UniProtKB/TrEMBL annotation:
The keyword Hydrolase applies. This is Interferon-inducible GTPase 5. It comes from the Eukaryota. One of its GO terms (molecular function) is GTP binding. The keyword Nucleotide-binding applies. Keywords: GTP-binding, Hydrolase, Nucleotide-binding. InterPro entries: G_IRG_dom, Immunity-related_GTPase-like, IRG, P-loop_NTPase. Belongs to the TRAFAC class dynamin-like GTPase superfamily. IRG family. Residues 61-243 form the IRG-type G domain. One of its GO terms (cellular component) is membrane.
């Protein structure tokens, strides 16, 4: 047990071994007031179950994104790409250059059925001849944000819709697709400069969108649905998240499976925001110390949370095809954070069970109680998960960077 513990902690970067002190304001995050109200009303005995349920509420939040634009602009391919599907997958949106959408068609995310991408028909089609008819039939108010697509130039109908969405207080994003085709066409020229091509397209879009008022280059996204690692696809994904209210943003972030460096970091930030709740639930539920660990923690909850980190940040399971594709050094990184048994998790957490941490944390545990066991449990779980998540994030970023470099070399 002790040897395993030494091996794990010695391989953690120093930045992850440095204590990350909790801020009192953390207790005001999302569910803080609700938890305190629960304790005042129902007491402490069932608080662990209450917090556990709150940890899973992100599954229940509905997100409805409207995908609109003329036929042939890549709407369906985008819906497939952001859901992590190929155009020929069974659950993929139908792809075609003709208008394949006559009614709003919903496509759920494979990882979360409450995340819905709505493929909307374009304005000017027989069933939607004008903006007034369009707004009424597609039920404009039901969508959290609008993504307006073009592959050439934004039309008058696109501008009308953008104005209407803006006046309703909702967010819209302007997306120019098939940028890879533009780049390939320009590469045949003697003096090719990719940045100049992209700048020319952005400037053309801005002129095209003058009726909308102040439009910045950053408001326009140049993407290829078939190369999500290039151009503005990742920036678009971040902008979609930023356009959503906090609960929808959390739900969509944890549901998306296409990982880029920015997406991975956003996932990690949300996971860090969960740690105090996991620590509180662990402290409230833990009654019996774990063998090899001097404090009582909810080892099952902690093990599940570590597994959740690995899944969310894209670390493959040992023995999987994805694991076999990793370099030897990256395989070793994954093995070092493969904490799946009670003994492994207890050995890892023992490094953070110290009475010197209790004073800092006990001030911020208004519902666990004043007992040393509960306070120590909270501190141990909080520190341990902070450092474990940091190590998972670092490993995932390294693996992702190597994979992205390989993909770019093949473009």
């Amino acid at each position: 047990m002790k040897q395993h513990l030494v091996d794990v902690t010695q391989n953690l970067p120093l930045t992850f071994l440095r204590p990350a002190m909790i801020d009192p304001s953390d207790w005001e995050l999302i569910y803080g007031d609700e938890i305190r109200e629960y304790v005042e009303r129902d007491g402490v005995p069932h608080i662990a179950d209450f917090i556990r349920k709150k940890l899973e509420t992100w599954h229940e939040v509905e997100v409805n994104l409207a995908i609109t634009g003329d036929s042939g602009t890549g709407k369906s391919s985008f819906i497939n790409a952001i859901r992590g599907l190929r155009d020929d997958d069974e659950r993929a949106a139908q792809v075609g250059v003709t208008e394949t959408t006559s009614l709003p068609t919903v496509y759920d995310h494979p990882a979360n059925p409450n995340i819905s991408f709505w493929d909307l028909p374009g304005i000017g089609t027989p069933n939607y001849p004008n903006l007034e008819t369009y707004v009424r039939k597609v039920q404009l108010e039901k969508y959290d944000a609008f993504l307006i697509f073009t592959a050439t130039r934004f039309t008058e109908h696109d501008l009308q819709l953008a104005k209407k969405v803006k006046s309703s207080g909702k967010k819209f994003l302007l997306i120019y697709t098939k940028i890879d085709e533009n780049i390939r066409a320009e590469q045949r020229r003697r003096e090719f400069n990719e940045e100049a091509v992209l700048e020319k397209i952005r400037r053309s879009c801005i002129v095209n969108l003058q009726e909308l008022g102040s439009i910045d280059e950053q408001d326009i996204f140049l993407i290829s649905n078939h190369h999500p690692a290039k151009w503005d696809f990742d920036r678009l994904t971040q902008a979609i998240l930023d356009a959503l209210p906090v609960f929808q943003r959390e739900s969509l972030t944890l549901s998306l499976t296409n990982l880029t460096a920015q997406m991975l970091k956003r996932k990690a930030d949300i996971l860090r925001g969960r740690i105090w709740k996991v620590a509180a639930a662990s402290a409230a539920a833990a009654l019996v110390p774990i063998p090899g660990l001097s404090v009582a923690v909810d080892i099952g909850l902690i093990t599940d949370e570590i597994s959740f980190y690995r899944s969310q940040l894209g670390l493959p399971e040992e023995g999987s095809v994805e694991f076999a594709r990793l370099t030897v050094s990256n395989q070793e990184k994954v093995r070092k954070i493969c904490l799946t048994t009670t003994a492994q998790v207890a050995g890892f957490m023992a490094a953070f069970a110290s009475e010197s941490t209790l004073e800092e944390f006990s001030r911020f545990i208004p519902f666990v109680g004043v007992g040393i066991a509960s306070g120590m449990s909270f501190a141990t779980t909080y520190y341990g998960l902070q450092h474990c998540l940091g190590h998972v994030e670092e490993s995932a970023l390294t693996i992702l960077s190597e994979a992205a470099n390989e993909a770019l070399q093949g473009f």
